[in-house]
Structure formats: C-alpha cells, structure tokens
Design a protein that fits this description.
Shape of chain B: elongated
CATH class of the largest domain in chain B: Mainly Alpha
Radius of gyration of chain A: 19 Å
CATH topology of the largest domain in chain B: MetI-like fold
Number of helices of chain B: 21
CATH superfamily of one domain in chain A: P-loop containing nucleotide triphosphate hydrolases
Strand order of the largest sheet of chain B: 7-6-8-5-9
Number of strands of chain B: 10
Largest sheet of chain A: 6 strands, mixed
CATH class of one domain in chain A: Alpha Beta
Structural class of chain B: alpha/beta
Distance between the termini of chain B: 39 Å
Oligomer: heterodimer
Largest interface: A-B, 24 and 18 residues
Number of strands of chain A: 10
CATH architecture of the largest domain in chain B: Orthogonal Bundle
Shape of chain A: globular
CATH superfamily of the largest domain in chain B: MetI-like
CATH architecture of one domain in chain A: 3-Layer(aba) Sandwich
Helix content of chain A: 25-40%
Distance between the termini of chain A: 56 Å
Chain lengths: ~250, ~500
C-alpha cells in the first residue's frame, strides 16, 4: 500500500568515483512506478554507472539508492537482483546453456518452478523451436530478444536496459524497440533505458534524463525536448535527429 | 622374456598407484589454487611462477632433492617421515603436475567473457552459484586439457621413482640399462607408454564430453578410469604383510647380491621385496632409518663418504673402525665382509705399456681418463691424483657399462674400473698397481638396519655368507650378467654364485 505511493526507484545525492574520476556526481532522481525513462548522454557521462547502481552491480560511494522506498544498501544483493530485470549491450547470455535454460535461470536460482519457455519466447517475438538451441546458433537480434526474455522471467516489475540495441542493425533496433515498449505497457513495468541515441529515446520513452559529466543536465518529456525547453545540452542532442530528419525530407522532395 | 612378464603386474600396480595419488594431490592443490589465482592476479603471478620454476628443475634432481628435505623435516619434528620411497616420489610428481593444471585452470577461468560474468551477477547468482553454473562449466574444457597433459607427464615421470627406491616401471628400465638387457628396458618403456596412452585416451573422452556437454562420454570415461585404476592396483593386495626389504645400488653386482640374499631369506621363510637403483649416499641413510633392512656396502665408500675419514688404513683396521663407529652412532649392524673387494682401480688396455699408476703419471698429459659418474667427485680420486700428481688431457664421466665401451673404442685410455668387475678378465685389462697404497680398501660388507642387527634369527640366515664369496666368482657372475650375448638374469647369476659360495669355516 505505502510502497505504491513511493517511487519505484530513487537516487538521493548519489556519487560514485572510479580511480578518482567522478562517474556519478551527487545525482538525485526519482522514477515513478510504471514510467518509461530514457537516460541519454555521451559516452562517459555516467548513465551506465547510474543504472548499475540501481541493483548494486556498483555500490555508491555516498548517498542512497532506494527501490520501492527501501535503501538497497540494507538489502540482500542476490534477492534484489533476481527481482530486477537487467539487459546488457553485449547481451551476456550463458554460452553453455540452451535458450530455454538461459530464460529459466532466475526462477531456477530462486528455487521456483520451471518457466513456460514457449510463452516467454512468444512475448519477445520468438518461436518455440528456438528453445533447445545454444546462444551461438542465434542471430544477434534473436540473442538480445532471449536476453530480454531472461530479464523478464524473474517476474520483476522493473526492467533496466543498458544500451540494449547498441550492437544491432537499424532494422532490428527498430523492431526490438517496439517490442520493448509493448512489453513495458503490457506487463506494467518500470523501465529505464540507457542509450546514446536521442531519436530512440524520443520515440520510446515518456521522460528523458540527459546526463553529462556525471550530472543530470536535463530532465523533460519528449515534447518539451523537441520544443527546446530542456536546456542547451538537451538541445544539442535533439538537434542531431532533427537535422537528419530535415535532410531526409529534403532528399525526398 | 617370461621373467619380465612375471615382474610387470606388481610394478604396474605401484606405478599406477603413485601416478594416481600424485595426480589426486596435484588436483587437490591445483584446482582451488587456480580458482583463487584467477581472481587475484598477484597470487596468479606467484603461483604460476613458482610452478614454472619447479618445471625448470630436472625431474630426477627434484626427486633427489626431496630426500635430504624430508630427512631434515623428519629430524626437525623428531618423527618418522619416510624419506625414501612413496612420499618423495609423490611430492615431486605432484609438484610437477601442478603447473599444467594451475596454468590451464587460470587460463580457463580468465578466458570467460566478462559480459557473461556480469550477467551471472545481474541475474542474482551467489558466488557459489556463479562458480558452479557458469565458471566451472565454461573453464572445464581448458582445465581438462591441462589435466590431460599433467597425467601423461606424471605417468612418464613416475618411472623415475625407482631412483628413490619406490618400485615403478622404472625398475626394468634402470636395471636393463645397467645390465644391457634391452628387452627389460623395452618392457618398462612400452608398459609406461601404454599406461600413458590409455589414460590420455580416457581423459580425452572425458574432455570431449565436457566440451560438448554430453553426459555419456564423460561418465564412460570416468567409469573406465576408475575401473582401470582398481584393476591395475589389484596385485598390491597381498603385499601388505611385513617383509624384508633388500636394498641394492644401481649395478649388476648389487642386483646379483641382492637376489642371493633374497633367495637365502626366502628359503628361510621370509617375504622379500627389493629396492634397487639406490644411490650410494641414499642407501646407507635408508638402512639407518629402517626403510631398507639389509644391503651390501663397500667399506671404503662408507669410510670416506659417510664417516668422512680421509685416511686409508689396512683392511682389518678399516672394518674394526666401521664396526665401532656404527655401534656408537647409527646403530646399524655389520654382519661381516663377504670375502671379496670391489675396489676402485685404474685399468688400461692390455697393449698400453702401463703397469703402475706411477707409469701412468708420466704419460697422463696425453691421455683421457674415463670415469664412472661418481669417481671424479670422490676423495679417492683426489687421493691418487695428489699422491701421483696425475694430470690428464681430459676426463669424461660415463655410466659403468659405457665406460668399458669407451676404453675399448679408444675414447678413453684409462678408466676407473672396479676390481670385481667381470669385464676386467673378459677384456684382458691391466689393473694398474698402486705402489704408494693411496687407494683405500673396498671390502664388500653386509649391513643390517638397527632393528635387524638385533634380530638373531635374521642374522643366522645371513651369517653363512660372511667370507664366502671369492672375487673370481663374483667377477664371473658379474660378467655373465653384463656380457653382450647369452646374458644371465641377475636371479640366475645369484643362483650360480650361491652354489659356488664357500662353506663357512
């Protein structure tokens, strides 16, 4: 009851340094339950680190991270991670386990019953015939779909995605983005998508957080972003897809 | 050939037992150490560096080094750590097997994609689950390849255990090399190679099963490996009861005398085992510690090496000196001299024109001395060298058999012969006289361990051998084993020699 009122994820004055360099610098951010947030920024802006802090893959040096209103420093990291879906840019499927075993790993670790692999595959747009294949026998796009299916099989309500489409071709990127957005809506997830592609963020998310040098420099809806109301850093990022679109439409004339 | 077939099964059994135990120990240490090293680069550098350093020590030297080490350790804790036999062989082979295991476990673990490990954490694996479900299966194929290499090395290296008195397939190899019975050498080599091939094949089957993640080949391989191990060790079962261990150094005369002693003891109802191929220094220590119950030593060797005496007294004075020294210190027993000497002597080809060492001293600068492996490091050599101011053009070391070959072929002009060696008579060699009496006496003497020295029944069996063997008979027996054709086995030569032994007065 009370957790319903609290944000699904909250950062309070969180800092994280690597070898003396601030990756995340006194960041505070609240993510409402059920929202789809894109973290955008150039390489090294701290967006991936911010994501990794959410399930204790990285510990904060200072500040607190709260999931459902509870400080995760006090939580068991293993239990915490099993309840949060996590998708990597380099996918990270277990190469020695079949597709079905990969998808079923979190329920297996948690000692829950087996998952319905066919249903899990269908959710991410794959056929059941892939269940017994090894990851190396799949295309990159198929692999990342399995990665997403694995993240969702834990039945957590939060999905963290760290540049999940970065290594994929444009067509696959686009369809997979639509799949993720559809899953977010259908399963009622809270989704945080790290990306350096502003167009992707504008099209998928309902809130865009722009990071630079470990700090949040803009936080706005796609509409506000496009209207130029989110500040100079955001404008610079929005300018790129806008210029591309303009040139494309000029070419089409 | 029949005697070889008969000898092999117990040797295969102890060989397999040693190799398996060494592999077990190496895995017990190597797997956890590899695991720890994969996560700590500094530990990995130290551990792999150490294992690599061990590899640079020749395996024979590594075995030899464990002997003084274990002796010192045993003395330190005042306990009875056996310094000969199974333990030093086990430790040396395990150390040798450590490098390929360690290196491949580390390489296997470090070769795992970082993204996969991060995913393992992100799906909420505990460190134990990560190891069991991800790291172990992914590192297993590479680790298995290292285990295979280690196993093949260990089985081959186990033949060297013979040199520290542990019976292995090295026994026929080393004995065969000494007495030029190439069939013995071949039998030992073929048996060891077959063991290595079979083991490699089975481990290869397991490796393939692990790599392809198929149960059937893995389990078949493991099953056959265990079955083979049990089968090979079957001949060891009745060996557990207490028996007499007879020591022998690494040349024909020692093999023959050991069999002669063994035959007498067996006829008196004792069970007998042999530890052959012991080095001079090792043999006496083994006697002192009771690892060996009885063996034949030479008075001059004991006098100079073990007792550290520099003088060369008369025969009687030396034997008396040895007796009182043993009674005061090591408590070993001198049963008595066998009746012949196996002294160091310098021998030349019959047409050399040399008759005494004094003649030799004048011509030595143009001549090459062929010596056995110990002679040039022995005080006796220094004694005659200094007494006669010997200076050779060159000195070369050979194993005894090849030393005689070198003299015949002209590679050497003078050799350090042994006075009881059958080849002296067979090759008509001239033994150079020692007018200054610089060479000490080398009476063959029968020694007993401290426990056996107080065992009246045991002593009564062997006492008839005192002063019973003539030097001509010993030479003939030695020659019958060493000659190139129509060789006798040491067993047969021992029977012949026993029949010619004098009836004690």
């Amino acid at each position: 009851m009370s957790t319903e009122a609290k944000p699904a994820l909250a950062y309070e004055q969180v800092s994280r340094r690597y070898a003396g360099v601030s990756a995340v610098d006194h960041v505070s951010l609240q993510v409402a339950r059920g929202s789809f947030v894109a973290l955008v920024g150039p390489s090294g802006s701290g967006k991936s680190t911010l994501l990794r802090l959410a399930n204790r893959l990285d510990p904060p040096d200072t500040g607190r991270v709260l999931v459902d209103g509870h400080d995760i420093a006090n939580a068991d990291p293993v239990t915490l991670r099993r309840g949060i879906g996590y998708v990597f840019q380099n996918i990270g499927l277990f190469p020695h386990l079949s597709v079905a075993e990969n998808i079923g790993i979190i329920p297996r670790l948690a000692g829950r019953g087996p998952v319905d692999v066919a249903v899990a595959l269908e959710r991410v747009g794959l056929g059941p015939e892939l269940a017994d294949r090894l990851p190396a026998q799949l295309s990159g796009g198929q692999q990342q779909r399995v990665g997403i299916a694995r993240a969702l099989a834990g039945e957590g309500k939060m999905l963290l995605m760290d540049e999940p489409f970065g290594a994929l071709d444009p067509v696959t990127r686009d369809t997979l983005g639509k799949t993720v957005r559809w899953l977010h809506d259908a399963l009622g997830l809270t989704t945080i998508l790290v990306t350096h592609d502003m167009a992707e963020a504008l099209l998928l998310a309902e809130r865009i957080v722009v990071m630079a040098h470990g700090r949040i420099v803009a936080d706005a809806t796609p509409r506000e972003m496009l209207a130029g109301e989110a500040g100079p850093e955001a404008d610079a990022l929005v300018a790129i897809p806008r210029a591309q679109t303009k040139r494309l439409s000029e070419l089409a004339r | 050939m029949n005697d070889i077939i008969h000898q092999l099964p117990p040797l295969i059994a102890s060989h397999v037992l040693l190799a398996a135990a060494a592999m077990g120990l190496a895995l017990l240490v190597g797997l956890p150490l590899g695991l720890a090293s994969a996560r700590r680069p500094r530990l990995a550098a130290v551990a792999v560096g150490f294992a690599g350093l061990v590899q640079t020590v020749p395996s024979l030297a590594l075995l030899a080094l464990f002997y003084p080490l274990l002796l010192a350790l045993s003395a330190m804790i005042g306990g009875r750590i056996p310094a000969l036999g199974f333990l030093p062989a086990l430790l040396a082979l395990s150390l040798y097997a450590l490098l390929p295991i360690l290196r491949n476990v580390v390489a296997g673990l470090q070769g795992i994609d970082a993204a996969v490990l991060q995913a393992a954490d992100a799906v909420g694996m505990t460190p134990g689950q990560r190891l069991r479900l991800v790291e172990a299966p992914l590192a297993a194929p590479v680790a298995m390849a290292g285990i295979r290499t280690a196993a093949v090395w260990t089985i081959g290296g186990a033949t060297l255990a013979t040199t520290v008195g542990y019976p292995s397939l090295g026994n026929p190899i080393f004995a065969g090399l000494q007495i030029e019975r190439w069939d013995l050498v071949l039998a030992g080599c073929v048996a060891a190679a077959a063991l290595a091939l079979i083991t490699d094949g089975l481990l290869g089957l397991i490796e393939r099963g692990v790599r392809q993640r198929r149960r059937v080949p893995t389990l078949t391989g493991v099953g056959l490996l265990i079955l083979g191990l049990l089968l090979a060790c079957l001949p060891l079962l009745p060996m557990s009861e207490r028996s007499i261990t007879i020591g022998a150094k690494n040349f024909s005369e020692q093999f023959i005398l050991a069999r002669l002693i063994g035959d007498r003891l067996e006829r008196a109802g004792y069970r007998v085992t042999y530890r052959e191929g012991l080095g001079s220094a090792v043999a006496f220590r083994a006697l002192q510690s009771g690892d060996v119950d009885v063996y034949v030593e030479y008075s001059g060797t004991l006098w100079a090496d073990t007792m550290g005496r520099k003088d060369a007294p008369s025969r009687k004075a030396m034997l008396d000196g040895i007796q009182s020294w043993m009674a005061a210190g090591p408590k070993t027993g001198l049963i008595g001299p066998l009746g012949f000497e196996n002294a160091y002597a310098l021998a030349a080809r019959p047409n050399s024109g040399l008759t005494t060492i004094a003649d030799l001293a004048r011509k030595a600068p143009d001549l090459t001395l062929g010596a056995d492996l110990e002679f040039l490091d022995r005080p006796e050599w220094r004694a005659i060298r200094d007494a006669y101011s010997l200076r050779f053009k060159a000195t070369r070391a050979y194993s005894p058999t090849f030393m005689y070959r070198a003299l015949q072929s002209g590679q050497a002009d003078v050799i350090s012969a042994f006075s009881s060696d059958g080849r002296i008579a067979a090759d008509h060699l001239t033994i150079l006289a020692d007018p200054k009496g610089a060479m000490p006496h080398y009476d063959a003497i029968l020694l007993a361990s401290p426990a056996r020295a107080r065992d009246a029944r045991f002593l009564s069996v062997l006492r008839p051998l005192v002063n019973a063997i003539r030097v001509e008979d010993m030479r003939a027996a030695n020659y019958s084993v060493d000659r190139d054709t129509d060789k006798r086995t040491p067993e047969a030569a021992a029977l012949w020699l026993d029949a010619r032994a004098k009836v004690p007065r």
